[in-house]
Structure formats: C-alpha cells, structure tokens
TrEMBL record:
Gene3D superfamilies: YVTN repeat-like/Quinoprotein amine dehydrogenase (2.130.10.10). This is WD40 repeat domain-containing protein. The keyword Calcium does not apply. The keyword Ligase does not apply. Keywords: Repeat, WD repeat. It comes from Streptosporangium jomthongense.
Length: 468
C-alpha cells in the first residue's frame, strides 16, 4: 500500500511539474505577446505624432520617428521616418514664385526647368541648386512668352535643355533656343493644322531626346508630328486623329518612334511613329480599370518599353517590348495615399521610378525596378493644397512639384540610403534624446524605464533598441 501511494505521489509531483512548466510557458508567451503588442502600439503612436509634427517641428518629428523605428521596426514606422527625413530636402524653388504654377518640366540632364503659370513660362537654371560647387547666380532667367501676347498652355524640353517648346492658347507652338539661358532666342513658330477649329490652343507638346522630333496635340485632339532637324525651319510631317475621337493626353518615347495616346473617351492606343509621315496605330490597351469621369493620363520610359496608365487612383503598368502586343504587369492602387484623382505623374527615363501627385497636396515616389511588384519609396510633401504637375530628373534624384503655392524642389541623392535604413540615416546625421516630459506627452503612459539606461534621465533615440 505504501508503495502504491509512493508511486501515486511521484506521478502527481511530475504532473504538477509539467503543469507548472506548461503554465509558465503559456504565461511567458502571453506576456511576450502582450508586451510585443504594447511595443507595436507605442511605436505606431509615436510615428503618428511624428507625422503630425512634420510640418511644424522637424526636430521633434525626427526624434519621435527614430524612436518608433527603434521600438518596433515595420513598414509603417519605417515609412513614417523616411517621409520625415525626405521632407527636409524639399524647398521652394525661389521666393519669387509663390503664385500658382500649373505645370513644371525638367530637362533630362537636370540643368533646366520650366514652370508655367498660365501666362508665360518661367525658365530656371538648376545648376546652382544641384551642384554645391557652382557659383551662386540668379535662378530665374527671362520668361518665355506666347506668340503676340498669347498665354502659354504647355511646355516641353529636350534632354539637354537647349531646345524648348511653348504651346499657347493661340494654337501656336514656339521653338526656343536655350543654349544661353540668360538670353532665350525665339527660333520659329509652328502653326496648328489649318483644319483645326480650336479656340483653346495647344494642349500638350513633347520632344524626342535629341530634340529633332516634336509631337503636339491641340485642344481639338489633333496630333501633329514635326521635324526639327533645322530648328529655325520646322517641317510638319503629319497630322493625325484617333479614329475621329480627339486625343487628350500622350507620352512620347525618347527616339520619337512610339506614342501612347489617350483619347476623349479615355481609351488608350499605342502608335507606331517610326514613319513620322504616316503614324500607324499598333494596338489598343485593354484596361482593367473601370471607367471614370476623371481624366486618364499616361507616362512612358525613354526606351518606350514601360508605359503607365493612370485613372481614378489606379495605375496600370504595361510592357511594350512588342508594340503590337502590349502586356499588363500589374495595377497599382493609390487610393490609400488619397490620390483618388491623380493630376500628374512623371516616370524616370529608365522606367524604374515614378512620382505621382494630385489633390492630396503631396506626391508619392514608387520603385518600379520590378514592375510586377511596385514598392513605395517616400512621400514628398508638396506644402500646398493641391499639386497639379510633377517632374523627375533622369536618375530620379531630382524632383519638382508645382501647384497652388508655387514650385518646390527636391535633391534626392540621399534617398536610397534613407530608404535602406532610415534609423541609421537619421542617427548618422543627428543625435537626440527624449526628455521625461516629452515621453509623458507623446508615449501615452508607457513605462519609459524599459527604453533607457538606468542612470539616464532621458531616452536616447539612437540607442533605444539597446536598452529595450
């Protein structure tokens, strides 16, 4: 009997040990889960406060954003810190331009920009902004005016910035020589097709990379191709409609041989302009996006192989390696960025980055290195209620944004470093601490002792993950 009870007692003791061990593991996992969730909540709360302070108190926004990533690094906290750090690169192009600007264009080499205020085109020499070794000189040079006092509707620049086009509401496009930016020279004018009855003039213009081919669309939707081999004596090569439906927007490849055009019914067609005298429709894009009253826009890489089509907060990415057989890569949804109605987008010449902007007052920069898996890089704060036009330099390190408050400029040469490790990028440039009062204000009652050394009376944002 004693042996039986002894065996029972041993079994019960083992059972108790097992229960205690299991209970301890359950408690530990529950504690870790709760602790982890508390860290996530704290990090997201600090990131939210950082976003709220971004426009008014950069130092506080950076401190809180860096702390958020240190406490819990995820897509939300990293993106918030990236946006805060990138925002420091933005600045007004000039204090002279504070009135609304409807359009901005930049040359491929990043040397020249044009901004259009609806009356004339302002010319900007960007060298002193992008090259720290350049001798500072006036940024703005004499504006480009429409013919006989007409208002400028649209502009275009060649890759080297030496040739510019201004299309006005008199249905005339002027060719300019910008070799000497201080003295723009009017070389020639190109009149709209004589059959056109437009009263609103030129809608959009584009130049091939070498500046020898110009494509112009007027408000009647007629697409005209011009030969600018002799810029002083342009030669009209063709005038084309889109199956009698007016063309409203288009994109031109660098070699001038591919045009992607949007008509008045928001249908998109690919045109083979290899024979500029007789452009031929190569294919229609079978868009999956629903019809929207918002205008459809398009952009194209320099080689004509990547095409973006935007409509109502969505962008379809297409492959045009074979112009006759377009292939859809994917659809990018921008609605969570409040870009339900996108006003403009700009694609780098290699098709790997796109800047999209609209009524949210900001622009979103995306990485399209893998067209099937677009990745959000950063948000550029436009510092204005609405952004109407954006432009990216060839390598994506130069960005311009125009709208109701003027023109803003970004030098994004450090963006890759920031995106790769925003916390490290922040700590390489700045060192900061959060005081007890600041912690109490922004941390929502979280115990700060977990995030600092025992003998410190503040939280070091760059060492916060060492102590937690």
């Amino acid at each position: 009997m004693n042996a039986r009870w002894r065996t029972f007692a041993i079994a019960f003791a083992w059972l108790l040990v097992v229960l205690l061990v299991v209970g301890g593991l359950v408690w530990q996992r529950t504690y870790e889960r709760v602790s982890s969730q508390e860290r996530v909540t704290l990090a997201h709360g600090l990131a939210l406060h950082a976003a709220e302070l971004r426009d008014t108190d950069f130092d506080a926004a950076r401190k809180l954003g860096t702390a958020a990533v240190g406490i819990h690094s995820d897509e939300q906290t990293r993106a918030g810190l990236v946006d805060t750090l990138v925002d420091t690169y933005g600045r007004a192009l000039s204090p002279l331009i504070q009135e609304p600007s409807h359009e901005v264009t930049v040359s491929g080499d990043g040397r020249v920009a044009l901004s259009n205020d609806g009356g004339e085109a302002n010319v900007w020499d960007l060298k002193s902004w992008t090259d720290p070794k350049a001798i500072r000189k006036p940024d703005q040079v004499p504006p480009l005016k429409g013919r006989e006092g007409a208002s400028v509707n649209t502009t275009a620049l060649s890759f080297d910035g030496r040739t510019a086009l201004t299309g006005d509401d008199g249905n005339t496009t002027t060719v300019w020589d910008l070799t000497d930016l201080a003295k723009p020279v009017r070389l020639a004018t190109m009149e709209a097709d004589r059959t056109a009855q437009s009263t609103n003039g030129v809608k959009k213009a584009a130049l091939s990379r070498d500046g020898r081919t110009a494509v112009i669309v007027d408000h009647d939707g007629v697409m005209t191709v011009w030969d600018l081999a002799d810029r002083s004596h342009p030669k009209r090569l063709s005038a084309t409609g889109s199956d009698t439906v007016p063309i409203r927007d288009f994109a031109l490849s660098a070699d001038g041989r591919t045009v992607v055009a949007v008509d008045d019914h928001n249908k998109v067609a690919v045109w083979d302009a290899s024979a500029a005298e007789h452009p031929v429709k190569a294919a229609d894009l079978d868009l999956s996006m629903k019809f929207s009253q918002n205008g459809t826009r398009t952009a194209m890489s320099a080689d004509g192989h990547v095409v973006l089509v935007q409509r109502a907060g969505q962008i379809e990415i297409w492959n045009l390696n074979d112009r006759a057989r377009p292939v859809r890569h994917t659809t990018l949804d921008l609605s969570f960025d409040k870009l339900y109605g996108t006003y403009d987008m700009s694609l780098t010449s290699d098709g790997k980055r796109v800047l999209v902007a609209g009524p949210s007052g900001s622009g979103t920069l995306w990485d399209l290195s893998d067209p099937a898996k677009p990745a959000r890089l950063a948000t550029l704060n436009g510092h204005m209620p609405e952004v109407e036009s954006v432009a990216l330099g060839t390598d994506g390190h130069l960005a311009l944004m125009a709208g109701s408050s003027g023109v803003y400029f970004w030098n994004l040469t450090g963006l890759d470093e920031i995106v790769a490790d925003p916390k490290q990028a922040s700590c390489d440039r700045y060192s900061a601490e959060i005081s007890k009062a600041e912690w109490a204000r922004y941390a929502g009652g979280a115990d700060w002792s977990e995030y600092k050394s025992e003998d410190s009376d503040s939280v070091s944002v760059c060492l916060i993950d060492w102590w937690s």
